[in-house]
Amino acid sequence: MIEINDVIINDDVLNTNFTCDLNDCKGACCTMESEFGAPLEAKEIDRIEESLAIVKEYLDKKNVKEIEANGFWEIKEDTLMIKSIDNKDCVFVKYKGDIAKCAIEQAYFDGKVKFRKPISCHLFPIRIADFGGPVLRYEKYHECKGALKLGEKTKISVFEFCKDSLERLYGKTWYAKAKEKLGSK
Asked: Out of 11, 27, 53, 93, which could bridge 89 as a Cys pair, Cβ 3.0 to 4.6 Å?
């Protein structure tokens, strides 16, 4: 484990090789069967609301109907989260062939919105636990077995794979400091 500015990074984030393989998992992180959707921060609700009209243009009719009828977020067990359809697909899923993608992120990459996607989604497979401060941990999913295989080939750790999202959350200086500390281990 290392600690950078009161953020603890578990060894599994640092030592597990991981590179998404969408051809293997088909975007399972957006379609995992569960009663719980992706965690959401309160400030992200407004950011999504600002982008919603444009994001809806990317979605299938059933997703738009669901959002219009029931909204896109909910509170379960005192946690804000994105809603899912039938406890499976995130309401923001857009399929490209048989691969699930994020409509919010696609609108962002197309330059139509300024918000990329919820940070919990961007950080995946990292999850943040709170034990008197943030603790970054790698959350293992059977659906990501292809990412572990590909990670062994690329030799990219979960930490490196999530560089953009970690820099988005904690800043480039924080990430560089963590890399420097890792290099001295």
From this structure: 93
